[in-house]
Specification:
alpha+beta, Glutaredoxin, 4 strands
Length: about 90
């Protein structure tokens, strides 16, 4: 089993609308004006299969352009990821 996800060109959030942590992550990113792509794993079955194959069971999963994977990140972790992307 692989634990790697594709490295995106922009901060990418894998989540679902029913997930409170996913909504909180989006609210935070919106509030700070971060550029990101949101992938609804309930709609994008290929993305859901990708996460499953990689062994990820919890959402949200945030992947940065440098390949860092954050699982259910805190606001502090999100802020650090945004700083890295901006650098």
């Amino acid at each position: 089993m692989t634990t790697h996800l594709p490295i995106p060109d922009v901060l990418t959030v894998y989540g679902a609308p029913w997930c409170g942590d996913c909504r909180s992550t989006q609210r935070y990113l919106d509030a700070v004006g971060a550029e990101y792509r949101y992938v609804d794993v309930g709609v994008d079955t290929a993305a859901e299969a990708l996460l499953d194959a990689a062994g990820y069971r919890a959402i949200p999963i945030v992947v940065t352009p440098d390949g860092t994977v954050l699982i259910e990140p805190s606001e502090r972790e999100l802020a650090a990821a945004i700083e890295t992307v901006a650098a």
